Amino acid sequence: MKDLNIIGLGYIGLPTALMFAKNGVEVVGTDLNEELVNTLNEGRLTFQEAGLEKVFKSALENKIKFQTKYEVTNRYIITVPTPYMKDSKKIDAKYVIAATKQVLEVCEPGTILVIESTISPGTMDKFVRPIIEEKGFKIGEDIHLVHAPERIIPGNMVYELEHNSRTIGADSKEVGEEVKSWYDSFCKGEIVVTDIKTAEMSKVVENTFRDINIAFANELAKMCDKEGMDVYELINISNKHPRVNILTPGPGVGGHCISVDPWFLVGDYPDIVNVVLGAREVNDAMPQYVFEKIHKIMKENNIKDYSKVGLYGLTYKENVDDTRESPTLQLLSIFNKYNIDNVKIYDPMIKEKKFDNQVMNMDTFLINTELVVVLVNHDEIKNNQELLNYKIIYDTRNIITVGKRIYKI
Questions:
Q1: What is the pLDDT of residues 173-197, one digit of tens each?
Q2: What are residue 233's phi and psi, to 5 degrees?
Q3: Which of the residues 203, 317, 344, 408 is marked catalytic?
Q4: Domains (range + CATH), the chain
Q5: Predicted confidence band at 343 (pLDDT cuts at 50, 70, 90)?
Q6: Strand pairing class (4-7; 75-78)
Q7: In the predicted structure, residue 51 carries a pLDDT above the cut 90
Q8: For the chain, what is the mean pLDDT?
Q9: Each residue's pLDDT tens digit, 361-370
Q10: 85-106 b/e with 16+ CB inside 10 Å = b?
Q11: Any residues with CB less than 8 A from the CB of 27 and at least 6 apart, and which?
Q12: Residue 163 in contact with residue 189, Cβ under 8 Å?
């Protein structure tokens, strides 16, 4: 069997490539970032992820290759980013288009081309098929198209790659089953074969469902704050109902999935998706809400200088180094809009200094800080709460139990 060429070695592509290789599949990983490829070839991972080092070691033993060029083969998986365009809210498919064009330059007859990147419903029809046909290839003979959306989360990638169910969307049942056999090499979850458009929609819908639920929790938090109620007690009581499962409010929604994918539906179906649009607006407005509450807490506690305020957490979720669409980054842009540049920032997962006002250890972060705004529930702060004994705390994650005074989201 020919090598499997995985295109894009980021947060999804790299763990996927390593998992295939660990389980005996001959894999070539391709990324245009030469520095990233060199780092991997030196035996070093490019981001932190629990359990990934062990998988990396096994993949190297099975002779996985990393390179900047596309492999000449007949099996490809594309895992490049899929952002959305800010004005139209539609998918920006430029990376998928570019990768597809490069594959067509080198691929062999009968190639199976799998798009694993999250794409909006109809992306294959609008963008991918026309490229293939313009090149003179016949879909279904020269090129077989498949969409197999990823379904993993940073912080638990290795486990979820093995145990989560998968969806394979293909033009033909035979090709779908063939690709299913690839993923069967490591996936212990159920693998469902369906058509491409259903597969496209399924991934976007899964993340949109979560976005809507989070938005409901965030609106509850605002209502409870106005009425002097504890939103967490309310949610806990409500979730005792057997058919209710309200998620947890927070300072915003980050990551490349939940904060991005629903916009695809807004852009493609603007006359239909009122609930989806409302949820997106609610969640995108949370950093502004947090900013206003910080100002309110400062006023209430006679804190006049923003240098006395410390923002804990830069990543979009706990115990990872992934800052994509992070609520903290959104909050910082609001501070910058008001020309406030002296708020202290710290995140134990970020090892390189990215901001002038960023500090690199907890001790420096706490010195002369009166108000600590907890934006990410890293284990470091959960397990060392005694350090916050004499601080005023604005806890947006509901994890802090000690402090001079504690405010909730």
A1: 999 999 999 999 999 999 999 999 9
A2: -65, -40
A3: 203
A4: 4-196 (3.40.50.720), 227-409 (3.40.50.720)
A5: very high
A6: parallel
A7: yes
A8: 96
A9: 999 999 999 9
A10: eeeebbbebebbbebbebbbee
A11: 3, 4, 5, 6, 17, 20, 21, 59, 64, 65
A12: yes
Token readout for 171 is: 């033009």
Count Cβ atoms below 10 Å from residue 198 Cβ, excluding itself: 14
Find, among 9, 61, 57, the residue nearest to 30 by Cα.
9
**How many whole angstroms separate alpha carbon 377 and alpha carbon 381?**
7
Question: Which secondary-structure segment (H or E) carries 95?
Answer: helix 94-106
What confidence score (pLDDT) does residue 246 get?
97
- pTM for this predicted structure: 0.91
Across the range 338-351, mean pLDDT stands at 96
| Closest to 334 in 3D by CA, of 252, 239, 409, 231 | 252
Q: pLDDT tens digit string along 93-148?
A: 999 999 999 999 999 999 999 999 999 999 999 999 999 999 999 999 999 999 99
Residue labelled with tokens 């999804």 = 12
Closest CA to 120 of 262, 264, 259: 264
Question: Tokens 């062990």, residue?
Answer: 54
Catalytic site residue from 107, 187, 257, 293: 257
- Report the amino acid identity of residue 45: L
Number of CB atoms found within 10 A of residue 51's CB: 13
Of 99, 90, 138, 135, nearest to 117 by C-alpha is 99
Structure-block tokens of residue 386: 């005694």
224 is catalytic: no
Q: From edge to edge, which strands make up the β-sheet containing 392-395?
A: 344-346, 309-312, 371-374, 392-395, 405-408
Judge whether 246 and 235 are in contact, CB under 8 Å: yes
